[in-house]
Amino acid sequence: MRQATLLGPLDGVDLAAEIAAFGVDGPVALVTAGWEEGERNDANVDRRLGGGSRNLNLYGRRLDILESDPGYADAERLLRTQIDELRELYLLRLRHALAGLEVIRRRFAEGQHRPRSELDAAIDAVRTLDETHTLSIAAAYEHFYAQNPPHERPTITRHREEVAAIVAGCAAIAIAGGHVGVLNDCLHLCNLAALIEERPLLAWSSGCVAVSERIVVIDDHDPAGRPDEVYDIGIGVAHGMVALPAAASRLDAHDPDRLAVLARRCAPSVCVLLDPGDRLELHSGRLADLGSVGVVTEDGRVLRGAQAA
Question: Pick from 5, 66, 164, 307: most CB atoms within 10 A?
Answer without folding.
Answer: 5
